[in-house]
């Protein structure tokens, strides 16, 4: 015991001074736990819960005190997790497309089920400005959902820039998704044209999120010329093949100072989870939801997968081993 009437103990690995004669229940309450809902080990021995109110602490005790399952709040701070692009914050890390759906109503229902806060719209194909024709904005409220105009179908920098200038004139959009395709067969991005367009658009005040190859050096160049997000393909657009090169996606994530979102090629929920487990900030997809047998159910699945992948990334996966390792230690078996 110390001169001031306290004793030294270790609680959950941390040194602590407490009043001599204090009970374990009092200590639990002091550290914010409900004594009736804790499990306690003292000096590696389990302390029965029924005795916590009378068991006094001794100098040098080492305690492990935790809320037992069902007793405490094991919730994870999912809701506090946000990502940010060009100064805008979002909770959902899933961006969905607006092509290939049966109709706009089905598209809207899928967006709702996905929990997405951003939809991307091919401004050359989808009507968002002519009130005389069916408008997507009648189904997906632009006050609640951020519209991200994209340049789908553009094969030159000039084409893409012209499309986005028109979009800005019509709807005021500055946060845009740039894609400049190299050829119709593979729909691979033309990186020379993409870099050129990114630089011009950024100088004109646009905030381009840029579809690109899964190449860490190209990603750096894009960032240098003003891309506000890097969007490497997981696999060719509409292929549903899943992430073909996890190594390069991881390298892009490690090197980027702006958000990285896998764009294109996701086929099913595990592909989306894999992208998030690599540390991507989000995933953009269209075909996997729109062409599922039940697009609304798939939108739910994608939402869950993106959230699960993100949680797993934050949690930090265990290391891989070459050989088995027993789940219950074998040492000390009788
Ligand atoms: C780059 C591009 O066009 C993508 O936004 C595409 O629309 C999505 O690709 P998936 O249809 O493969 O999800």
Can you give a write-up of this model?
This protein folds into 2 domains: 6-67, Roll (Ubiquitin-like (UB roll)); 83-315, Aldolase class I (TIM Barrel), CATH 3.20.20. The chain is an alpha/beta fold and 334 residues long. It has 9 helices and 15 strands. The two termini are 39 Å apart. Helix content is 30%, strand content 20%. 1-deoxy-D-xylulose-5-phosphate is lined by residues 97, 120, 152, 179, 211, 237-238, 263-266, 284-288.
Give a brief outline of the structure.
Pathway: Cofactor biosynthesis; thiamine diphosphate biosynthesis. With 334 residues, the chain is an alpha/beta fold.
Give me the secondary-structure topology.
Blueprint: E1 6-11, E2 14-19, H1 24-30, E3 38-42, E4 45-47, E5 62-67, E6 83-85, E7 88-90, E8 94-96, H2 104-114, E9 118-122, E10 146-150, H3 157-171, E11 175-178, H4 191-203, E12 207-212, H5 216-224, E13 229-232, H6 246-255, E14 261-263, H7 269-277, E15 282-285, H8 287-290, H9 295-315
Parallel strand pairs: 1-5, 8-9, 8-15, 9-10, 11-12, 12-13, 14-15
Antiparallel strand pairs: 1-2, 3-4, 3-5, 6-7
Helix pairs in contact: 2-9, 3-4, 5-6, 7-9
The chain binds 1-deoxy-D-xylulose-5-phosphate.
Beta-strand residue fraction: 15-25%
Q: Which consecutive residue ranges, at least 5 long each, have pLDDT under 50? A: none
Task: Give me the CATH fold name of the largest domain.
Answer: TIM Barrel
Number of helices: 9
Q: Name the hetero compounds present.
A: 1-deoxy-D-xylulose-5-phosphate
What's the overall geometry? elongated
Rounded Rg: 27 Å
Mean pLDDT: 92
**How far is it from the N-terminal to the C-terminal residue, by CA?**
39 Å
Spatially, the strands of the biggest sheet line up as 2-1-5-3-4
Total separate domains:
2
Order of helices and strands: EEHEEEEEEHEEHEHEHEHEHEHH
Query: If classified by CATH, what would the architecture of the largest domain be?
Result: Alpha-Beta Barrel
Number of strands: 15
Structural class category: alpha/beta
Query: What about the largest sheet?
Result: 5 strands, mixed
CATH superfamily grouping of the largest domain: Aldolase class I
Indicate the CATH class of the largest domain.
Alpha Beta
Family: Belongs to the ThiG family.
Protein name: Thiazole synthase
Domain Thiazole synthase ThiG: 85-329
InterPro entries: Aldolase_TIM, Beta-grasp_dom_sf, Mopterin_synth/thiamin_S_b, Thi_S, Thiazole_synthase_ThiG, ThiG, ThiS/MoaD-like
């Amino acid at each position: 015991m110390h001169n001031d009437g306290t004793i030294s103990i270790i609680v959950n690995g941390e040194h602590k001074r407490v009043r001599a004669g204090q009970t374990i229940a009092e200590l639990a309450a002091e550290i914010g736990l409900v004594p009736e809902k804790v499990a306690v080990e003292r000096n590696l021995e389990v302390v029965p819960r029924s005795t916590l109110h009378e068991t006094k602490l001794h100098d040098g005790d080492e305690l492990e005190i935790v809320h037992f399952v069902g007793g405490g709040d094991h919730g994870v701070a999912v809701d506090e997790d946000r990502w940010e692009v060009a100064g805008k914050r979002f909770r959902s890390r899933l961006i969905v497309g607006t092509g290939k759906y049966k109709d706009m109503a089905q598209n809207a229902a899928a967006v709702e089920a996905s929990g997405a806060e951003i939809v991307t719209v091919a401004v050359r194909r989808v009507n968002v400005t002519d009130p005389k024709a069916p408008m997507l904005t009648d189904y997906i409220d632009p006050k609640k959902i951020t519209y991200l105009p994209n340049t789908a179908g553009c094969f030159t920098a000039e084409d893409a820039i012209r499309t986005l200038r028109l979009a800005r004139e019509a709807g005021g959009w500055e946060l845009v998704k740039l894609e400049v395709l190299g050829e119709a067969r593979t729909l691979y991005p033309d990186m020379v044209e993409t870099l050129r367009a990114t630089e011009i658009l950024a100088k004109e005040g646009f905030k381009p999120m840029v579809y690109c190859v899964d190449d860490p050096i190209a990603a750096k160049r894009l960032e240098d010329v003003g891309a506000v997000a890097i969007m490497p393909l997981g696999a060719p657009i509409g292929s549903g093949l899943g992430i073909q090169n996890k190594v390069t996606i991881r390298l892009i994530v490690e090197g980027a100072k702006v958000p990285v979102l896998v764009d294109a090629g996701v086929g099913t929920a595990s592909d989306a989870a894999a992208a998030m487990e690599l540390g991507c900030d989000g995933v953009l997809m269209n075909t996997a939801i729109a062409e599922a047998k039940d697009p609304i159910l798939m939108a739910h699945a994608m939402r869950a997968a993106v959230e699960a992948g993100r949680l797993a990334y934050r949690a930090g996966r265990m290391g891989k081993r070459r050989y088995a390792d027993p789940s219950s230690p074998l040492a000390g078996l009788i």
